[in-house]
Amino acid sequence: MESPAFTFAAHAARGELAYQVDAAGLPLWPPQVRGAGWRVSDGLGTVYATTTVRRPGEEPHDLSLVDLDEGVRLMSRIVGVAPEDVAIGMRVRLAWDGEVPVFVEDVAQGAGLPGANAPGAPSPAPDSA
Amino acid sequence: MTVAIVGAAESDLGLVAPGLTPTDLMAQASLRALEDCGLATGDVDGLYAASTQLPWASLNLGEALGVREARTHDSTMIGGGSPIAHLAHARAAIARGDCEVALIAYGSTQRSVGRDRASVQEVSPWEAPYRPMLPLTAYALAAARHMHEYGTTPEQLAQVAVSARQWAQGNERAWTFGKGPLSVGEVLAAPRICDPLGVKDCCLLTDGGGALVVTSAERARTLRQPPVHLLGAGEASTHRHLSSMPSLTQTAAVQSGARAFAQARLTPADVTCVQLYDAFTITPVLFLEDLGFCAKGDGGPFVASGAIGPGGALPMNTNGGGLAYQHPGMYGLLLLIEAVRQVRSGAHDVVLAHGNGGVFSAQTTALLGSGAAA
Least C-beta-crowded within 10 Å: which of A64, A122, A123, B142? Predict the structure, then answer.
């Protein structure tokens, strides 16, 4: 049996956010032994919950739970905006911080600033927080 | 068969003497609890304990007390509410005849040795890259979501801490005893750690422990203290890590509470006092809703109404709770001791004790009652 984490990592190395489905086709997260097959997400989702983490002596950073449109909920970070400006309901799309999936505001779908982050525009660089 | 809590005691609390260990505190509390009911260590034949510092907690407990006749052991670890699970398991063991006198104990030196050493977090590799401050980050996310769905406000959450401090002013064993009242403004002005929660939304970090002695209701009648009967108990779990929690605004307390109430043939209307695990201000808000004391979404207005404070309609966390009394890593055993005290005081015939473990991961509910309720 291959480690589900290794399968995920192989997808991530190709820029794919992979997730599993169970025997009934329902999405699963995180990658786990009971998965019955793999899918690749379109990378679009919505912020379900968000907080700004403030460790003493460090820059605050975002930590959010993101609901992918395919039905997966995962912990992640919204980058490219101030952590305080991340809001529940914000539409986001996949970006990568190395091989760690993070998200940026999807202004094309959301209610953000017009013109910025138009489809095809490069993603803002993920922050290093 | 019904069982009763016949002995209950705390260990030293707060910041204990240098060199004391979690096992020392379990043993000290156990000796006090046995003294409370007039039993001896030789009577104990069931050992129940869990601690973040002691994976082999029940064996350490027995060794420290010199118990040589233990017939059943349970070190079930499902987080802070574990002792309520131990109570339910002890009831089953006594009913089966696996033991006659169960000792449930807890000890922690979390303040003395530091939280990072006392409570090593099991961080999911799928969450670790995002650097959560666990468990706080998880509760902050739940608070944010509750605010979004139901309009709950930081002021309402603050009222939980304000009420806890009020209760603690009447409890000389409380860490914040004598510190005077806390205002909503002070809670809101305290530094944020994980928005929307700040320092004063978080439980205390103390040393401490406690112990309970449990036996059959029949044997309980022969002992020193009025029996505190276990009327019903329920457990439920939905996840280990927050990302796998089905809904951040509804906990498995819905199931654990329903099981406890069904066993006891009682409803929330029969309960006149509650001890609800308050690791953070948001936690009892969710439990009040999920256990049926108010409608889903109404927890904020409920706690802000004054109902939970001294003189309120539903006294909650009457010792000051984890927010203002003591929170030695896991609070479930001290929460049960306070429930026992409230029943023994004669002020309440039915008291609900509710424990939480992990990041809303495991929920445990017990209904305790006087002889009149049993």
Answer: A122
For B202-215, the pLDDT digits (tens) are: 999 999 999 999 99
Measured in angstroms, the CA of A119 and the nearest CA of chain B are apart by: 26
Is residue B22 reached through a cis peptide bond, with omega within 30 degrees of 0 on the bond before it?
A: no
3-state secondary structure at position B243: helix
Q: List chain A residues with CB under 8 Å of B125.
A: 5, 30
Average the pLDDT over A57-73 and give the result.
Answer: 98
Domain ranges (residues) in chain B: 3-115+204-369
| CATH code of the region B3-115+204-369 | 3.40.47.10
CATH value of A4-105 in 3.50.50.60, 1.10.3720.10, 2.40.50.100, 2.40.50.840:
2.40.50.840
Spell out the SS3 assignment of B118-173. HCCCCCCCCCHHHCCCCCHHHHHHHHHHHHHHHCCCHHHHHHHHHHHHHHHCCCCC
Q: Which chain A residue is nearest to residue B198, measuring alpha carbons?
A: A54
Are A65 and B125 a contacting pair at CB < 8 A?
A: no
| Closest-CA distance of chain A to residue B193, Å | 5
Q: Is the ipTM of this complex over 0.90?
A: yes
Q: Does B115 touch chain A (CB under 8 A)?
A: no
